[in-house]
Amino acid sequence: ETAVLDAETGVKRFQSKGKVSFRSDGQRAILRGDEDALWNVTEGTRLRVFGTHEPSDAFAFSPSGRFLWHSMYVTYSLYSAETGELVCKTGVPIPAFGEQQSWHVGSRFGRDGTRFVTRRHDEGRGNLLKSALWDFDKGEKICDLLVPDGSSISNATFTPDGQRLVTFFYDTLDSKTPLGQPAVRTNIICWDATSGQRLVIGQADTESLEWQAREVLFTHGGTKCLSIHPDGVMLWNLETGDVEQQLSLPTLFRLRVLLAPNGRQVLAISPTDGAVLWNLETGESIRQFGALYYRGPQSGSAWTENARFTENGKQVITISHNGRGFHLIDVESG
User: Fold this and answer.
1) CA–CA separation, 84 vs 38, rounded Å?
2) Chain segment 86-140, per-residue pLDDT in tens
3) pLDDT value of position 79
4) CA dist., res. 271 & res. 304, Å (int)
5) How many whole angstroms separate alpha carbon 101 and alpha carbon 90?
6) Sign of the CA dihedral 107, 165, 223, 152?
7) Is residue 164 within 8 Å of residue 191, measured between CB atoms?
8) Beta bridge partners of 233
9) Picking from 121-135, 268-282, 291-305, which range would have the lowest pLDDT averaged per residue?
């Protein structure tokens, strides 16, 4: 058990069977146990109980300590850290920051926690998702994130320094993906995370990857990024909006992409089609590896779920989806 004591008197304020996370001033705390709860540390009183503890639960105080953010699976809620009162919740229209918000899909925070992006359904346009940039501490919307053709943005990701926001949107093409779905062309927008001003907009060639990006990785000090698609990777210049390199690695499963410690190489791993080590500077394939299956009495039949470079970048460790098997790959020799 975890106990919270008064440092001067030694008196126990409260205790929990799980971890304790404090607000920066030490006056509020989240206790994780059989039930997750927000506590007033000074008075030793419980302000709000969030219900039975779930492994997917995540909590975060805003930098000023004014708000508490709670996420569970695809449900997101915002509370007053002072009173525990609900401010807004995913899919539930509640007065939030002075207007009615019905949050859906999820939100992304900037590095310092003062900026975040929400996506919600536009009631007048069917399934279209409307996005906005918010100031977390002031509780104010900075701006709506508008796309030229009025479509939805996706993959809202802040640069490592928190100064810019990278988003993507897509044009539907006449061609089809291997599964018979309409192929897409990827477009990128880079925003100023402070003002919400649109800084750069770029478009891939019509022969770009056909699936939407699922993940974004930053390189070159945050001036470039990798958009990770199920069928490959694109390297974008965030200063110009141009695609500098493109690697195609078709797969019907999740593509795992690792950036080497030196920032000059990327390893793309397909659970079914093996892996490719790619030179980011030249766009050339350095080495190809066979399919990384796991079969044996311990691992059973499995595929690659996770992978990482060693600190020196000379080896890669891949781990099976069931956690029972792994590969240690020498990058130089394969």
Assistant:
1) 7
2) 877 654 433 333 333 433 333 456 666 678 777 665 555 445 567 888 887 776 7
3) 86
4) 5
5) 9
6) positive
7) yes
8) 228, 247
9) 291-305
Pick 187 or 108 by higher pLDDT.
187
What's the DSSP call for residue 257? E
Q: Are 125 and 142 in contact (CB under 8 A)?
A: no
Long-range contacts of 264-270 (CB under 8 A, 24+ apart): 265/313, 266/226, 266/233, 267/307, 267/309, 267/316, 267/331, 268/232, 268/233, 269/304, 269/307, 269/318
Strand partners, 257: 268
Q: What are phi and psi of 223, to 5 degrees?
A: -85, -10
Are 277 and 265 contacting, i.e. CB atoms less than 8 angstroms apart? yes
Contacts of 221 (CB under 8 A, 6+ apart): none
Displacement of CA 107 from its chain's centroid (Å): 9
Q: Distance between CA 250 and CA 268 in Å, rounded?
A: 11
How much is the pTM?
Answer: 0.68
CB within 8 Å of 68: residues ≥ 6 apart: 28, 30, 38, 59, 60, 61, 62, 78, 79, 80, 81, 84
Residue 61 parent element (H or E): strand 58-61
Quick one: which of 171, 178, 182 has its CA closest to 250? 178
Residue 158: which of 204, 203, 191, 134 has the closest Cα?
A: 191
Each residue of 236-245: pLDDT tens digit? 999 999 999 8
Give dist(CA 156, CA 135) in Å, integer: 15
CA dist 132 and 141 (Å) reads 7
Rounded to 5°, the CA angle 333-235-194 comes to 135
What pLDDT shows up at residue 38? 92
Residue keyed to tokens 């990482």: 308
Q: In Å, what is the CA distance from 199 to each residue of 33, 116, 145, 239, 241? A: 45, 18, 12, 9, 10
Residue 94, φ and ψ in degrees, nearest 5: -130, 140
